[in-house]
Amino acid sequence: MADTNNFPSGKIIVHHLNNSRSQRILWLLEELGVPYEIKKYQRTPGLLAPEELEAVNPIGTAPVITDGSVNLAESGAIVDTHASEGSLMPLFVNSYITHIITERTPWLIRPIVGFLMAKLRAKALEPRLRTHAQMIEQRLTEVDGGWIAGGEQPTAADYMMIFPLEGMSMLCPEFLGINTQRYLRRIHERPAYRRGLELGGKYDYAP
């Protein structure tokens, strides 16, 4: 349902940053069948958002959608649910940062920094990530192959939860239970999700 050319045309515009939470907004809009257009932004070599994105959102984060004269930022506000953003995402982001710090440390002291970052993750982050993963696994076991809210179709809870779970599947896959792994595969196989991937471009968090 997306068009990446000919701005503006009265459609919703999704300001999409590669390898970001905006990927789940593309999935949402494809599921809903809402006409929209994509304006793509690529991260810098330092993995930051480009300056052009600040013209749309002064803090330079994505997703942002433009509907007429209104710019709406933050996926939680766009989808209107906040459990994954308020609880799980900060843990995932902090864990990811510890890996980045290690990778960018000069090689001479990298083993020491890597050891310290691993200790930090083990003490402050991984126990809480594991707890969240267990709660999600329990819920997915309860719905027995269904969606988080228990219905027959994905809801805001699924659109929001997908990104942190995809991140965990890369950083700490051992925390994800069998039903969570099946849930991720089921989402990744949905035609609307695949269309969102094709339209959004390179995305490292899904097969």
From TrEMBL:
It comes from the Eukaryota. Residues 9-90 form the GST N-terminal domain. InterPro entries: Glutathione-S-Trfase_C_sf, Glutathione_S-Trfase, Glutathione_S-Trfase_N, Thioredoxin-like_sf. Gene3D superfamilies: 1.20.1050.10, Glutaredoxin. CDD domains: GST_N_GTT1_like (cd03046). It holds the Pfam family GST_N. Belongs to the GST superfamily. This is GST N-terminal domain-containing protein.
